[in-house]
Design goal:
about 45% helix, Colanic acid/amylovoran biosynthesis glycosyltransferase, Rossmann fold, Glycosyltransferase_grp1, alpha/beta, about 400 residues, about 15% strand, transferase, six-stranded parallel sheet, seven-stranded parallel sheet, glycosyltransferase activity
Length: about 400
């Protein structure tokens, strides 16, 4: 079997979801070809053939040269597939100008014979809905939070054409499947849930030391959808109660300046630490020192960091955004709080702090056991193998 995986870029060393999936397929004799917009230089890179998309933006001279090269490829390498794609697009009532642009832009996808072409993100199918049929492959699409939770708000019915042509859709949570149905996906289409997974051999609970003051942690891109301002507002209320703590935020992003301003306004400057991105080893070390992990996102597909925290035996408080309420079972392996309600989050943090040691230990053990049983890389790899092999 030969599978083409369409991604924004070659997966870096830290992008474990795609790397583990690819390795699992390769170990079962499946050839994987990567189609990407950008190539990351990475000494750990996987043993895959990589086909890079032409760059059709930026320097005008280079754009003209790239278009010329793609036209040559269309004429000399893939004339039949190019014509077939043009005809299929025309049936979808695409304008001639837009049709020609798509045929040129998608040349890099037309040269390989594949059993499956799998788009790693829903938005990557836009303008490529007919590529799979053109090359005689089955079409698979993965949806995560942004693809279906946010993008369609600005682009209604953007997936209407793709829904009619896709063979299988992969989601990471039931909530995302429900969003797909709300967006117009017919019930009969095959949706397969394969959750994220973590290295449960690496993220193992260590003997925790008692902290002099409470340690809270969040691992997140500094983006509005992560709900970090709401988290800070809840911790401001905690601070006003005279409870001492440190809050560590691991991650980078465009909202850092805004968040630093919020920290100052809420008088939490001495309480909050921004570390930027950290290695897996440093993340593990921080989780070992954490009393409560908080992921109070406004939108979240699932969140590996919450799995890692649970695997380490850290008590977790999350919002009810999409997959988080499946990631953590409320009052069994952690706590789920309605999103965008900082006062409720504050109350829940206070409640968790006040739990006795036996209650905390029971929650931690159940969380660790569930992650070890249900969210392993080995289980995920087998599920992806079944995804492609089963009708």
């Amino acid at each position: 079997m030969k599978i083409g995986l369409v991604l924004p870029s070659t997966p870096g060393y830290s992008e474990t979801f795609f790397r583990n999936k690819i390795l699992g397929l390769q170990q079962n004799g499946i050839k994987v070809i990567l189609f990407v917009n950008d190539y990351k230089s990475d000494e750990y890179f996987l043993n895959c053939k990589v086909i890079k998309a032409p760059r059709l933006g930026g320097n005008k001279f280079k754009v003209v040269l790239n278009i010329f090269m793609q036209v040559l490829k269309m004429v000399l390498v893939s004339p039949r597939n190019s014509l077939k794609l043009f005809i299929l697009n025309k049936k979808d009532k695409l304008s001639t100008t837009q049709n020609v642009k798509q045929v040129i832009a998608n040349q890099f996808l037309l040269t390989e014979k594949l059993d499956w072409i799998h788009f790693g993100f829903g938005t990557m199918t836009l303008g490529r809905e007919n590529v799979a049929q053109t090359i005689g492959a089955k079409m698979a699409v993965s949806f995560r939070g942004f693809d279906i939770g946010i993008y369609p708000l600005k682009h209604p019915n953007c997936y209407k054409s793709m829904f009619q042509k896709v063979n299988k859709i992969h989601v990471i949570s039931d909530d995302l499947a429900n969003l797909l149905y709300q967006e117009g996906l017919s019930e009969y289409k095959k949706i397969v849930k394969i959750t994220p997974a973590i290295d449960t051999h690496f993220f193992l609970s260590e003997a925790k030391k008692e902290n002099a003051i409470l340690q809270f942690t969040t691992i997140a891109r500094l983006h509005w959808k992560k709900g970090l301002e709401n988290t800070l507002e809840a911790l401001c209320l905690l601070n006003q109660q005279g409870i001492d703590f440190k809050y560590t935020i691991i991650g980078d992003g465009g909202e850092k300046e805004r968040l630093i301003f919020a920290v100052k306004q809420l008088k939490l400057t001495e309480k909050v630490i921004f570390t930027g991105k950290l290695s897996s080893e440093k993340v593990k070390k921080q989780l070992e020192a954490t009393d409560i992990y908080i992921q109070y996102s406004l939108q979240e597909g699932f969140c590996n960091a919450v799995l890692e925290a649970q695997a380490m035996g850290v008590l977790c408080i999350v919002s009810d955004a999409e997959g988080l309420s499946e990631n953590v079972i409320d009052k069994v392996t952690g706590f789920v709080v309605p999103k965008q309600q900082p006062k409720l989050l504050f109350k829940k943090i206070k409640e968790v702090i006040d739990l006795d040691d036996a209650q905390k230990k029971e929650l931690s053990l159940k969380a660790m056991e569930r992650v070890q049983n249900e969210f392993t890389i080995e289980k995920q790899q087998q599920e992806f193998l079944n995804f492609y092999e089963e009708n």
